[in-house]
Amino acid sequence: MDQEGASQSPSTSTEPVRSRWSPKPEQILILESIFNSGIVNPPKDETVRIRKMLEKFGAVGDANVFYWFQNRRSRSRRRQRQLQAATAAPATSGGAEDHQHMTAMTMHQYPYSNSEIDLGFGSCSNSSSANYFLNGTSSSQVSSFLLGLSSSSGGCESNGM
Amino acid sequence: MDQEGASQSPSTSTEPVRSRWSPKPEQILILESIFNSGIVNPPKDETVRIRKMLEKFGAVGDANVFYWFQNRRSRSRRRQRQLQAATAAPATSGGAEDHQHMTAMTMHQYPYSNSEIDLGFGSCSNSSSANYFLNGTSSSQVSSFLLGLSSSSGGCESNGM
DNA sequence: CTAATATGAATGAAGG
DNA sequence: CCTTCATTCATATTAG
């Protein structure tokens, strides 16, 4: 059965190691057609519809569809710019990192001296984010800090539903 | 000035000139810890403090911290929603499944945790299924769809690939 | 088997 | 807060 685009090793488990989605020719054609039809940024409505359509040809998720369109857009634009690259000063254009426009922000939340620290959300992933491996350089300092604030951390809601 | 975040060799002048700030493992750990501790929306006061702490491990600005928390919040909320939706939905089985709320616009983002110890590629599989350009499998369906939307095709993109 | 390329996916930054 | 762009990473595929 054509479960995913990537046929790895359909042996033991039914989980083909969901690596990254591999759009099939048919799916690509559809996506390209839509893109070329003028739909470069399909709204949710359209995205779902497209996903449904693509699903018939192969497993695909809304995220995949959105990612596809997003990447497509970026690539197209970048390609155009790269091609058009000319008469432009290669100067670094200055890297002003001081765009802190944090005027007042909405930092009027959760009172520290109150019991409103009840987070509804909170990822249960601590060592996620990246595949970095502490080098032990200054990890000691981090550890110290962590040991100091280790307390609530009850953000992990294993919502069993 | 440029406040590059990724500073591999502070002495060497061969800085890869990172456009955007790349939080280091230690910084990420601290940020995540704070977030998980209940501080999901630190006020300016706290933001500055955090920045100070992070600065010791690498160049970082208040804006970076603010952005980080902002993105983190959105990501968490999205993940929670996606998780809830996925719990009930057996899913379309396949690649990524991200059902964002997408009110009426578009969706984005897709959190994923990859903690796999991969030794790199190493697949000795030489015979690949290969993807022929439409084998005529279900192209009929695709054609139907294409016939439905074929029109002006305002695609102003010369894709040569 | 290693290198380069293509593309999907993740994250930071900015706009609304 | 939500949406979107831009940059970067990771992996799959193809070439050498």
TrEMBL record, chains A, B:
Region Disordered, annotated ranges: 1-23, 77-98
Every Homeobox domain range: 14-79
Subcellular location field: Nucleus
DNA-binding as UniProt keyword: yes
Biased composition (Polar residues): 1-16
UniProt keyword annotations, A-Z: Developmental protein, DNA-binding, Homeobox, Nucleus, Transcription, Transcription regulation
Ranges of compositional bias, category Low complexity: 85-95
DNA-binding region: 16-80
Keyword Nucleus: yes
Family: Belongs to the WUS homeobox family.
Protein name (record): WUSCHEL-related homeobox 12-like
Provenance organism: Camelina sativa (False flax)
